[in-house]
Amino acid sequence: MTALVALTRNEFRLLRREPLYLFWGLVFPVILLVVLGSIPGFREVNADLGGVSLIAMGALIGEWSRFELSHVSMRSWLALGYLTVFGSLIAFSCYVWVFKVASTARASTYAFVNPVVAVFLGWALAGEEISKRTLVAATAIVLAVILIVRSSTSHQDAG
Hints:
Layout: H1 2-6, H2 9-17, H3 19-37, H4 43-60, H5 74-101, H6 104-107, H7 110-126, H8 132-158
């Protein structure tokens, strides 16, 4: 993260134009934070570091100069509240609980199922359209999760 802070304005202009610089300036530090998050002791601060890094990067490239709080709609505030409560607090609590009571293979299927649930909620609550391509992808994801769960169950029965 020190490398990001040390970049000059000209280098940030380069970050916007060059995908390789964007990778090393933004994506790589995020990957590094994920890796550090898998080390005991870093887990507790990983999400905070990620959020702070994104806020800092936004400030450094001028995102805050275009932001006006008065332009944020009530619907956006409600969506933020929903994501904070259900997408973070409740979902993370459930995630931690599942990892305590289920096998790793079974518990890790949450990463596949969550996007399908999000698409369904978008359709049901916000009237978003679901394309044929999205339905095919969701079906493939659900079938893959079924295969993973069945496989982990058969391995537990055999063991």
